[in-house]
């Protein structure tokens, strides 16, 4: 596969706005070590230039079921290859669900089942994984449970878990990294009455924002190389550096990091407050007012921004202050344009939900994440010093158990994160200190900086069977940083 170093450089011009934060905060190297793992590709070409904030942010369409008979919402989906204009005037080849990039959002309801009929119209195997969902092992979309080209698979999602901003993506081992990179991802928003009862922004003021990066060649085609550090063009809902017109009122913004490896630290250019209300597994117990939100690959965060504090006509840039890359490319993500006034009956309550107390742990175990970071061309990644083997069971867990896992990143340069299938867990400690407010809710993915240790607790009381856990920097999991747990 061709590789390159993407350079937009002077081709990106900072738009003249009233609130741009012209002096960008420097990228935080200590929080951006996610890219320090493999050598940069050596082939260098120059991608077409992109101007900031010239295109509107697309709103991702909501999928419609083909049937609602018997209280079950049935969807059909076909993966297929398309070309689409991402860079102005240039068509780029993509792998998609139903010709959409990103894929359509499924809006589901707790205790109302969804059936998903997935057809594979590509020439590579796929496996559709609903990230963060509690599902039986035969509907988990595991790395070896694939759909061959031309075949069909039916997935059953019971939706018995509480509300959560989930997402779906390909998981076919050895090709999952490239398949997701080329477009096989979308969102799945699960709602319930607990969430409905709150006066949070809703309807057109509840907006999904899917973030990721890409690497273009000179002709505008996506370039893929394992561990490519130079994916320096940012996309928001599939568009490069868009603007989003907002009213002067509160919005609920559901940020999802769908990148293979890039981490984001999101800040408003004027240093204004963000109110984080949710994480991977739904609402936090209480809102968390902060200046920044940090998302590793696969993590989600629901944030409320009150645009009523800005006069109509304000243009407010969303900055990124984490990760490797030229600041003019990766330091600015999108722009909010305050274009009108609007009534706002919404509010953010001081209490959002009540989480059940954690049960007494029944077992504890340790997990060590590590990868080769000495520059070797055939670098591998390891879970407990083992490369993933689908024939091996790495952890045997009693059904109903509640376990404390101590997860450590043994690397000195490379960041990782840790994702468990089937369960949402609670973060107990980070670096020996209690988890902060951003990690006070339910999580399915947690970041680990070099040398960092996190303790978490998960309860395995839903489905039996074999499920994987892995680094959700997908290039790392494709390189072997994945293991199997057997629950029964």
Strand order of the largest sheet: 11-10-9-13-18-15-16
Structural class: mainly beta
**From the alpha-carbon coordinates, what is the Rg to the nearest angstrom?**
21 Å
State the fourth-level CATH superfamily of the largest domain: Cupredoxins -  blue copper proteins
Q: Which strand-content bin applies to the residues?
A: 35-45%
CATH secondary-structure class of the largest domain: Mainly Beta
Show unreliable segments: 1-30, 35-44
Molecular shape: globular
Portion in helices = under 10%
**CATH domain fold name of the largest domain:** Immunoglobulin-like
Main pleated sheet = 7 strands, mixed
The quaternary structure here is: single chain
Short description:
With 488 residues, the chain is mostly beta strands. 4% of the residues lie in helices and 40% in strands.
Description:
There is one protein chain. With 488 residues, this protein is mostly beta strands. It has three domains: 9-55 and 205-341, Immunoglobulin-like (Sandwich), CATH 2.60.40; 69-196, Sandwich (Immunoglobulin-like), CATH 2.60.40; 363-487, Sandwich (Immunoglobulin-like). Helices cover 4% and strands 40% of the residues. It has four helices and 32 strands. The strands form six sheets. It has a seven-stranded mixed sheet with strand order 11-10-9-13-18-15-16, with no helix packed on it. Strands 21, 22, 24, 26, 27, 28 and 30 form a seven-stranded mixed sheet that branches. A hairpin with a 2-residue loop joins strand 26 (425-430) and strand 27. The longest helix is centred in the middle third of the chain and has 6 residues, at 176-181. The two termini are 42 Å apart.
């Amino acid at each position: 596969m061709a590789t390159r170093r993407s350079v937009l450089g002077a081709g990106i011009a900072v738009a003249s706005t009233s609130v741009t934060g012209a002096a960008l905060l420097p990228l935080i190297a200590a929080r951006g070590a996610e890219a320090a793992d493999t050598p940069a590709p050596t082939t260098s070409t120059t991608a077409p230039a992109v101007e900031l904030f010239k295109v509107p942010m697309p709103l991702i369409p909501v999928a419609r079921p083909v049937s609602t008979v018997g209280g079950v919402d049935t969807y059909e989906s076909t993966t297929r290859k398309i070309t689409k204009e991402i860079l102005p005037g240039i068509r780029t080849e993509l792998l998609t669900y139903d010709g959409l990039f990103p894929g359509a959002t499924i809006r589901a309801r707790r205790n109302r089942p969804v059936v998903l009929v997935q057809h594979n119209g590509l020439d590579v195997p796929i496996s559709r994984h609903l990230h963060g969902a509690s599902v039986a092992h035969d509907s988990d979309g595991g790395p070896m449970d694939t759909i061959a080209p031309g075949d069909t698979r039916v997935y059953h999602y019971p939706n018995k878990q509480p509300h959560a901003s989930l997402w779906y993506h390909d998981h076919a081992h050895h090709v999952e990294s490239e398949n997701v990179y080329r477009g096989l991802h979308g969102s799945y928003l699960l709602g319930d009455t607990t969430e409905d009862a709150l006066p949070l922004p809703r309807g057109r003021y509840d907006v999904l924002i899917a973030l990721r990066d890409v690497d273009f060649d000179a002709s505008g085609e996506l370039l893929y190389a394992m561990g490519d550090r130079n994916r320096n063009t940012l996309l928001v809902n599939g568009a490069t550096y868009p603007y989003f017109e907002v009213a002067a009122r509160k919005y609920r913004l559901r940020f999802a990091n769908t990148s293979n490896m890039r981490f984001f630290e999101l800040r408003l250019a004027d240093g204004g407050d963000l109110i984080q209300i949710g994480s991977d597994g739904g609402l936090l117990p209480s809102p968390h007012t902060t200046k920044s939100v940090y998302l590793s690959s696969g993590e989600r965060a629901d944030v409320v921004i009150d645009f009523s504090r800005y006069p109509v006509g304000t243009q407010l840039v969303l900055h990124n202050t984490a990760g490797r890359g030229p600041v003019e490319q990766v330091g600015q993500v999108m722009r909010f344009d305050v274009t009108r006034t609007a009534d706002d009956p919404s509010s953010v309550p001081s209490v959002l939900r009540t989480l059940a107390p954690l049960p007494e742990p029944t077992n504890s175990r340790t997990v060590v994440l590590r990868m080769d970071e000495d520059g070797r061309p055939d670098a591998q990644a390891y879970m407990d010093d083992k490369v993933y083997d689908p024939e091996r069971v790495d952890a045997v867990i009693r059904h109903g158990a509640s376990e404390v896992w101590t997860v450590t990143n043994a690397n000195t340069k490379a960041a990782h994160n840790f994702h468990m299938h089937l369960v949402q867990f609670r973060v107990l400690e980070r670096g020996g200190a209690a988890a902060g407010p951003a990690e006070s809710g339910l999580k399915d993915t947690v970041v680990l900086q070099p040398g960092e240790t996190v303790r978490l607790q998960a309860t395995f009381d839903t489905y039996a069977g074999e499920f994987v856990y892995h680094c959700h920097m997908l290039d790392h999991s494709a390189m072997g940083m994945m293991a199997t747990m057997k629950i029964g």
